[in-house]
């Protein structure tokens, strides 16, 4: 899971 | 990953596949707005800046490559392919999309989560995606004859963003640190709302089994 600040959605 | 987001990504993929197939098979891009396609290419470029630096999952990386490749191949077809480019009705595609780019960039510089280059570019891509369909919707109103592939294209795009909203609700309810994504939700809601009237006429025409006509 990405960190709170990473954007893991396309 | 949840079913809403996966289904949304598949709808998004389907929309670009439908468009590419239409252009490739019919060697025609009649009724397609080049400006909307240019905006989408810009959305993907600004959003996937981390494609080589950040790794989230194989799925994420592959989908980013697919979306970038499809966006660029649609642009290549509509601008450079010797046959297809003749079928682009430029004088119907009149939306001044440079204003959209400027407005979204200014807004991203004012309203963002973090003032870093990557975050501002990501925010810009979120705002720009919300309005990228406008030139296409304006062109559909103007050309009035909507071939069903173009109709499907816009329908899948609207469904993709609608499913993403369900995904945001789901993640808001299930994930702790997901509460600060309100900026995405507002932009996503506006984007989906832009499709509302199109959906109404699309479903109506589908139900009455008649040609899709948007009001003038």
Automatic annotation (TrEMBL), chain B:
GO terms for cellular component: endoplasmic reticulum membrane. The keyword Transmembrane applies. GO terms for biological process: protein retention in ER lumen; protein transport; vesicle-mediated transport. Keywords: Endoplasmic reticulum, ER-Golgi transport, Membrane, Protein transport, Receptor, Transmembrane, Transmembrane helix, Transport. One of its GO terms (molecular function) is ER retention sequence binding. Its main location: endoplasmic reticulum. The keyword Transcription does not apply. It is found in: Endoplasmic reticulum membrane. It is a multi-pass membrane protein. It holds the Pfam family ER_lumen_recept. InterPro entries: ER_ret_rcpt (IPR000133). The chain crosses the membrane at residues 55-77, 98-115, 121-140, 152-170, 182-203. Belongs to the ERD2 family. This is ER lumen protein-retaining receptor.
């Amino acid at each position: 899971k990405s960190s709170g600040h990473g954007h893991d959605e396309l | 990953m949840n079913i809403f987001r996966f289904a949304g990504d598949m709808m998004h993929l389907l929309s670009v596949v439908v468009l590419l197939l239409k252009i490739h098979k019919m060697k025609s891009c009649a009724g397609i707005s080049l400006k909307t396609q240019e905006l989408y290419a810009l959305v993907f470029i600004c959003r996937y800046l981390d494609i080589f630096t950040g790794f989230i999952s194989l799925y994420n990386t592959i989908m980013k490559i697919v979306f970038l490749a499809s966006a660029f191949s649609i642009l290549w077809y509509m601008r450079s392919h010797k046959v297809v480019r003749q079928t682009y009705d430029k004088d119907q595609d009149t939306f001044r999309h440079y204003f959209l780019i400027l407005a979204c960039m200014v807004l991203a510089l004012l309203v963002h989560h973090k003032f870093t280059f990557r975050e501002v570019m990501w925010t810009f891509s979120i705002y720009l995606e919300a309005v990228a369909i406008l030139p296409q919707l304006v062109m559909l109103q103007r050309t009035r004859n909507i071939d069903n592939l173009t109709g499907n294209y816009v329908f899948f795009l609207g469904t993709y963003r609608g499913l993403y909203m369900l995904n945001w609700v789901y993640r808001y309810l299930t994930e702790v640190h997901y509460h600060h994504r309100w900026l995405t939700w507002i932009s996503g809601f506006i984007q989906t709302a832009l499709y509302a009237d199109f959906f109404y006429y699309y479903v109506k025409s589908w139900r009455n089994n008649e040609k899709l006509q948007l009001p003038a």
